[in-house]
Specification:
Structural class: alpha/beta
Distance between the termini: 43 Å
Radius of gyration: 22 Å
Oligomer: single chain
Shape: elongated
Strand order of the largest sheet: 1-2-3-5-4
Strand content: 5-15%
Largest sheet: 5 strands, mixed
Length: 351
């Protein structure tokens, strides 16, 4: 069975790393600890960077072959256990701690752009000879640039700040009129009773507490789905998750994540990336659903009932942005009523 989810690939490498012996540059106890049962270990990020630096200097293929105990000039067929070690090392070479602030951990897995599977399956399929294995390992042009990885860290930190602001607003809503105005804007109709609003407020607060823990303290993975890189049906997909129990917690970002479409509510891409990540983490931690998207309108009492808004992922994301005062009056209006925009691509920006 192919590894169709990042968690499948991760677990396979974790189990191998626990029991295998690596040579040379990989013979490091710290490197052996980089993968844990709950996710990558931030304390081992330095060892991971050191191994990556050695691989970059000496050639990723040569270093991986040597570390995996494979010959560099053999003309036979590489043994399956050696291929698994090579895939593990290729996986580690493309796993990055893209952002860290305090206890926050933002990991990005950025595999070679030409791959259509995760390393374990890609190498097993391609490496029918040592020469082909070397070619596969030499492929280092990644799906995410260094600038993109840095920006993913920045957007995640912005999303975290929004979630923390949402907690503050929800906690003070019963005593602070400004906070209650924001809660009602995204979750209440004119007919919503105080008791129903209180239930929603408590539920949303509980969700944002979990989301803050995910973005601030738990291990969190951002990656993409290699098999969909050439899939025309994914052109308009921004991001998704598989389910709330995938471990490590993983958000898959796709092509539309990187575009600035006219139809979008937010045209500041840093804010839009943060919005997408908060949206997806709400699926993971709060079991939200996609009752409506902001580009189509998420106004309560018009596009959504209060009950549906309370479970709507984009409502949660825009509420969090509003709590952090990250939205203009125009942003709020467009999110409520929908944008009536097109799929024309506008210039990209990062503010």
């Amino acid at each position: 069975m192919p590894n169709d989810r990042f968690s499948d690939e991760y677990k396979a490498h974790l189990e191998l790393l626990k029991r295998t012996t690596l040579a040379g540059a990989g013979n490091s106890e710290t490197l052996k600890r980089v993968l844990t049962d709950t996710g990558p270990d931030v304390g081992s990020a330095g060892a991971l960077n050191d191994f990556r630096a050695i691989a970059k200097k000496s050639g990723e293929d040569a270093v991986i072959l040597q570390t995996a105990g494979l010959a560099t000039d053999d003309t036979g067929v590489p043994p399956s256990d050696g291929l698994k070690k090579a895939a593990l090392l290729k996986f580690l070479c493309h796993l990055y701690l893209a952002g860290s602030r305090g206890s926050q951990q933002v990991w990005v897995f950025s595999s070679p752009l030409s791959y259509r599977q995760y390393p374990l399956d890609q190498i097993a399929a391609d490496a029918t000879s040592y020469a082909k294995l070397s070619t596969c390992l030499k492929d280092v042009a990644e799906v995410f640039s260094d600038e993109t990885k840095q920006r993913l860290g920045e957007a995640t930190q912005m999303g975290l700040s929004w979630c923390m602001a949402a907690q503050s607003v929800l906690s003070s809503a019963t005593t602070d009129a400004k906070s209650m105005t924001k809660v009602k804007r995204w979750f209440a109709e004119a007919s919503t009773s105080e008791s129903d609003l209180a239930v929603t407020t408590a539920s949303v607060l509980a969700g944002f507490k979990k989301m803050t823990n995910t973005l601030n303290g738990s291990t969190f993975i951002i990656t993409d789905m290699p098999k969909d890189r050439a899939n025309p049906n994914k052109e308009l997909t921004e991001a998704y998750i598989f389910n709330s129990i995938e471990k490590p917690k993983t958000v898959y970002i796709e092509k539309a994540f990187f575009e600035n479409y006219d139809v979008s509510v937010l045209h500041d891409q840093k804010k839009n990336w943060a919005r997408i990540l908060v949206h997806e983490v709400s699926h993971i931690d709060a079991a939200t659903v996609d009752n409506s998207y902001a580009w189509a309108g998420i106004g309560v009492g018009t596009s959504l009932t209060a009950a549906k808004a309370a479970l709507n992922a984009d409502s949660w994301a825009f509420f969090a942005a509003d709590c952090a005062d990250a939205l203009t009056t125009g942003d709020i209006t467009r999110a409520g009523a929908g944008t009536s925009g097109t799929l024309n691509k506008l210039p990209k920006n990062w503010n």
